[in-house]
Specification:
421 residues; ARM-type_fold; elongated
């Protein structure tokens, strides 16, 4: 019995040792990028330019070759025709193939067909997803090492792969590389990429993908710091035939600027900054970000109304509102120099009084206050009453305003007859 157990103990290390050696030998044979490259290139050369046959060859080869270990080599070959050296050049002494993206025709249809090859391959071997993403990030950093035609093909392919979900928009981070941006490579590449992406989907789908990875507000970084303006971006991409992208970036910038304006306004008001300083700041922001006055009055109104803790009792809130708004009338008046701005303010007051039920009875009092303080004038009030109001609380507010509107009309008629005399 003891002898039997000793035999067992002696056999264990021998057996495990044999397994260990076998595994090491197998690894060594597999861990040879050159041999892997030769197998792929030979197979691609045999299949020729029939991309259906290429996809089938790659599907079958995954069972025999170690795609997991050699993902980078595999994708280098499929894109550039051989293993890439740092910087994006092909090594002279290495085998290469013409069955690759860079040797294909420079048109969208061909790139769509190549996108299907990558798509099928990654669907079949799901573990290649991360490796492919890393490969594209690397290729984007190597853009300067490629010819203009190669860059164009890669841009079209990347756009299609972003559209069909094979790639995540976070790969665009590579385009913000300082050298690529400085030399204009990033912006030129982005033109081709976005054209093919929008061609496959639309600007809304593109915007959603960018938002998902917080890239929606970074597109201006495709240009050097001294050219990072909405005007430059709009001009460049509109001239390149991407008006919808230009408009999207302009809207994003405007939304961002408006949010920033409201935040800063509320801070200035809570600090009790003088109105002349606040007005000066707002006017500078309007000019800088091209924000029209009707939009600004809405922001100023919201900011003014958010600086107070309102009384919950309906009978007291009207008095509190009048006192508060009387104080802020000079600020509001600075941004109602246009009829449209006055009308916008009236609609904002209507919506606010409807949405905050304690203010339902305060609407007419607020409008009269603003009329007396010259924030609002007759014509926009009469227009609002006649046909420019919204549905929210319409019957209540029109009833409240009835006598005041009649008084305005009479006053207008009297002043008109005085002028005739």
């Amino acid at each position: 019995m003891v002898s039997f157990m000793n035999n067992q103990k002696q056999q264990k290390p021998t057996l495990s040792g044999q397994r260990f050696k076998t595994r090491k030998r197998d690894e060594k044979e597999r861990f040879d990028p050159t041999q892997f490259q030769d197998c792929i290139i030979q197979g691609l050369t045999e299949t020729g330019t029939d991309l259906e046959a290429v996809a089938k060859f790659l599907d079958a080869s995954g069972a025999k070759l170690d795609y997991r270990r050699y993902a980078e080599t595999l994708f280098d070959i499929l894109v550039a025709g051989g293993m890439l050296a740092p910087g994006g050049t092909l090594a002279d002494d290495m085998m290469r193939t013409d069955v690759c993206v860079f040797a294909a025709q420079e048109d969208l249809e061909t790139m769509q067909a190549f996108a299907q090859v990558f798509n099928k391959l990654i669907r079949r071997y799901k573990y290649l997803e991360k490796g492919f993403e890393d490969e594209v990030k690397k290729l984007l950093l190597f853009l300067k090492g490629f010819s203009e035609s190669e860059r164009n093909k890669l841009a079209m392919l990347t756009g299609v792969l972003l559209a069909n979900g094979t790639l995540n928009a976070s790969i665009l981070n590579s385009l913000y590389n300082e050298n690529l941006v400085k030399e204009g490579v990033s912006a030129a590449f982005a033109v081709k990429l976005f054209k093919s992406w929008i061609n496959e989907k639309d600007i809304n789908a593109v915007a959603a993908s960018l938002r998902k990875v917080s890239m929606d507000n970074r597109l201006m970084e495709l240009f050097p710091a001294n050219k990072q303006s909405v005007e430059h971006f709009t001009k460049y991409f509109t001239e390149a035939g991407l008006k919808e992208l230009s408009e999207y970036v302009r809207n994003q910038q405007t939304i961002g600027a408006r949010k920033e304006l409201q935040k800063e306004l509320q801070e200035q008001m809570s600090r009790g900054d003088p109105f002349k300083d606040i007005i000066l700041y707002v006017k500078e922001e309007m000019k800088k970000n091209n924000i029209p006055e009707p939009v600004v009055i809405g922001i100023v109104w919201s900011s003014v109304m958010s600086t107070v803790e309102w009384n919950k009792k309906e009978e007291l809130v009207a008095e509190q509102a009048i006192k508060h708004l009387k104080q802020y009338s000079p600020l509001l008046a600075a941004f109602t120099t246009q009829g449209q701005s006055e009308l916008t303010l009236l609609l904002k007051i209507q919506e606010y009084c409807y949405d905050n039920i304690h203010f339902m009875k305060a609407f007419q009092k607020i409008v009269v206050l603003f009329y007396k303080a010259e924030v609002l004038s007759e014509e926009p009030i009469l227009k609002w009453y006649k046909d420019a109001h919204v549905a929210k609380g319409k019957s209540v507010f029109l009833e409240q305003m009835k006598k005041f509107v009649e008084w305005l009309k009479n006053a207008e008629e009297e002043s008109g007859s005085l002028m005739i005399r």
